[in-house]
Amino acid sequence: MNLPLLVPGDCALVFVDQQAGLAFGVGSIDRQVLLNHSIALARTAKVFGVPIVASTSATKVYSGPMMPALQRAIPDVAAIDRRNMNAWEDDAVREAIIGTGRGKLLVSGMLTEACVSFLALSAANEGYEVFVVGDACGGLTAQSHELALLRMQAAGVRMTSWIQVLLEWQRDWTRHDTYDGARAIVEEFAGGYGIGLAYARDMVKP
C-alpha cells in the first residue's frame, strides 16, 4: 500500500537559525512555546532515526549559538555556521543536506520570513519535497509569518506541525520500537493530549 504519508526513512530534519538573538524578535508565537515545539520535533527525529542538519548565522555578532535547550536535545549535532541568510546558498549546509540522501526535508527555524523561507523555496526549486513545520517556526509578526507560509505554499512547499510529524511517523501505537520514545514526547509536550495519555497509562486498567 502506497500511502501519501511521511515515513522516517524518507525524511531529514533541518533546523535553521534556532538562536536566541533571533528569538528576541519573534512575535508570531510565544517564544517558550516555539522552543518547546522545536525540542519536541528534535526529540521526535532522534526517536525515529531521522538525520538532523542544523545551521546558525551571525553567532559572534548578534544571534548567539543554537539555543541551549535545543542543543541539549541533539547533543551530537554540530550546527554549521554561515554568513548569508539563505542556508541553501552555503556550500557546507547544502552538502550536508544532500549528504543525508533523503528526498523529503522538514524545516524548522527563524525567521519564517527570511531564513526559513529562503531555504525552503530554494530546496523545493532543486526538486526536494519540503515540509515546513509551521508551529516550530517563528516570524516577526503573526501576519508576516502567515504571509511567508502562504508564499512557500504557493511554490509547492507543504505545511505541517510537530505533533502531526510525530503521529504520522508512529502511525500505529503497536510499533514497539518507537512507542516509548514517541509517547514520552507526547506526554511532555502535547498539552491535553499528553495529559490524557498519561492518565490512561496510570489510571485505566485493562
TrEMBL record:
GO molecular function terms listed in the Swiss-Prot or TrEMBL record: hydrolase activity
Matches recorded under InterPro entries: Hydrolase_YcaC-like (IPR053152), Isochorismatase-like_dom (IPR000868), Isochorismatase-like_sf (IPR036380)
UniProt-listed Pfam families: Isochorismatase
Residue stretches making up the Isochorismatase-like domain: 11-163
Keywords linked to the UniProt accession: Hydrolase
Presence of keyword Oxidoreductase: no
Protein name: Hydrolase
